[in-house]
Amino acid sequence: MTSKRITEVDQSLYAVHNRLFFRLFQAGIILDRQSSKEMGVSTAHWSVLGALSREVVKQGMSFSDLTHYLGFSRQNLDGILKRLEREEYVMRNSDQQDRRIKIVQLTEKGWTYWISLQEKTYEFYRQALAGLSLDDKVAFLHLINKINQNMHTVTLQQLQQNESN
């Protein structure tokens, strides 16, 4: 912590925040491990295939749009796409209007693979969300969306300026 005095209320709130973010981190690790073990696909591959399987991008989407949609760095996404290209699940082609833009889309083999995952995906979700009502799931989705939106706006610049004064 900083050298500033933190009240007991602040410490309690910090403990809740710390536990919440730890549990989010832990859930991500468990999701990654279990999806590889039970479904035979990494969460990174699963998320790329899922993003490209959406109806609105059936003809593919630009590499830049895919990085933004998934939240991956360009370097990480490039590595993932190279592996998926080797497996012949995705392909990258130049955009017809602007040859500098690469369009990423599922191949026929990629679609077949994605479809083959659907029954496992459904069952994975069903078991992972067991005991949660539909209202719980909708509320949780709403709260995760709020946290994600807030994290995009986090800036510690003011804190860093205050510490240097």
From TrEMBL:
<dbReference type="GO" id="GO:0003677">
    <property type="term" value="F:DNA binding"/>
</dbReference>
<dbReference type="Pfam" id="PF12802">
    <property type="entry name" value="MarR_2"/>
</dbReference>
<dbReference type="InterPro" id="IPR023187">
    <property type="entry name" value="Tscrpt_reg_MarR-type_CS"/>
</dbReference>
<dbReference type="InterPro" id="IPR039422">
    <property type="entry name" value="MarR/SlyA-like"/>
</dbReference>
<dbReference type="InterPro" id="IPR000835">
    <property type="entry name" value="HTH_MarR-typ"/>
</dbReference>
<dbReference type="GO" id="GO:0003700">
    <property type="term" value="F:DNA-binding transcription factor activity"/>
</dbReference>
<dbReference type="InterPro" id="IPR036388">
    <property type="entry name" value="WH-like_DNA-bd_sf"/>
</dbReference>
<keyword id="KW-0804">Transcription</keyword>
<dbReference type="GO" id="GO:0006950">
    <property type="term" value="P:response to stress"/>
</dbReference>
<feature type="domain" description="HTH marR-type">
    <location>
        <begin position="17"/>
        <end position="149"/>
    </location>
</feature>
<keyword id="KW-0805">Transcription regulation</keyword>
<keyword id="KW-0238">DNA-binding</keyword>
<dbReference type="InterPro" id="IPR036390">
    <property type="entry name" value="WH_DNA-bd_sf"/>
</dbReference>
<protein>
    <recommendedName>
        <fullName>HTH marR-type domain-containing protein</fullName>
    </recommendedName>
</protein>
